[in-house]
Design brief:
With 271 residues, the protein is α+β, with helices and mostly antiparallel strands. Helix content is 16%, strand content 46%. It has 3 helices and 18 strands. The strands form 5 sheets. Strands 2, 4, 5, 7, 8 and 9 form a 6-stranded mixed beta sheet that branches. A hairpin with a 5-residue loop joins strand 7 (113-123) and strand 8 (129-132). The N and C termini lie far apart (47 Å).
Length: 271
């Protein structure tokens, strides 16, 4: 009797959680659908950090919306996004299109660099929406010196495309998995990442003498949204084992701006 009651309670909790999640998804689609940050555009360079134009568009409906804040993030050469601060705060009515000017010098950050904005849109009768801009570049001025020019030229085009903030954290660097046994490939996503959908996971082997890579198998394919973390089960066949060989995964995903990105795991071994 106690077991029956416990199971009933657990099923009720799961059902409520599922309904809540489904309701939230429906609410976000209702209140956040049709919104987009259309400026800055991908890879655009600004030479005046005090005047960066942000544009938000929407497909009008009966819901009243206002832009309430803009947060700034910097992205370093390793693809690590760092929250800087809120660089604009107010109440800007959004009908079809709204543009505002942001002063990035408020963030007290070094230029040149690559940045993105998180735009907060407040719904008067529903949940708030957060929209990520495309990655853009900022220089200190139009009259930069040789050092700044060299730093600017070294900025990563993959980061411009939004290919950052996703990591294959397991198997770990130099770790071991057992052939023929199922294990989890763990994928971690930063909240500031643009990649939000995973589409393919491929396994490769690499000969440590020749450094030549060979595709072993398609481990998974689909169309899976990722928020913070995702585990994909895989099994490496015994036939893939070879002497002086390591393995790695290639993960393919798409960003909210319809870019295709590839991410790679650390090399690991099969015993």
């Amino acid at each position: 009797m106690k077991l029956t009651a416990l199971l009933a309670c657990l099923f009720a909790v799961v059902a409520v959680t599922y309904v809540q999640a489904s309701s939230m998804d429906e609410a976000l689609k209702k209140f956040c659908g049709g919104l987009a940050v259309t400026a800055p555009t991908k890879g655009k360079t600004f030479t005046n950090p005090k005047k960066i134009k942000v544009t938000v568009t929407r497909k009008p409906n009966s819901e009243q919306k206002v832009i309430s804040a803009v947060d700034a993030y910097s992205i370093n050469s390793k693809g690590k996004a760092t929250y800087l601060r809120t660089v604009w705060k107010g109440s800007y009515s959004l009908n079809k299109k709204a543009s505002l000017t942001v002063n990035l010098e408020k963030a007290k950050v070094k230029f040149p660099g690559q940045f993105e904005f998180r735009v907060w849109v407040h719904n008067k009768k529903g949940p708030d929406c957060t929209l990520m801009s495309k990655v853009f570049k900022v220089k200190s001025s139009s009259h930069s010196n040789a050092v700044e020019d060299a730093e600017y030229q070294n900025l990563d085009a993959n980061i411009d495309r939004g290919c950052f903030g996703v990591e294959l954290s397991s198997p770990t660097l130099g770790g071991e998995v057992t052939a023929g046994q199922s294990f989890a490939v763990q994928i971690d996503r930063d909240s500031a990442a643009h990649t939000d959908t995973i589409t393919n996971l491929e396994l490769y082997s690499v000969n440590l003498d020749t450094r030549e890579s060979t595709k072993v198998q398609d481990s998974w394919s689909g169309d899976e949204m990722i928020v913070n973390m995702l585990n994909i089960k895989d099994t490496i066949p015994s036939s893939a084992k070879a002497s002086n060989t390591a393995f790695y995964y290639k993960l393919t995903g798409t960003t909210q701006h319809n870019e295709t990105c590839d991410f790679y795991s650390h090399p690991f071994y099969v015993n």
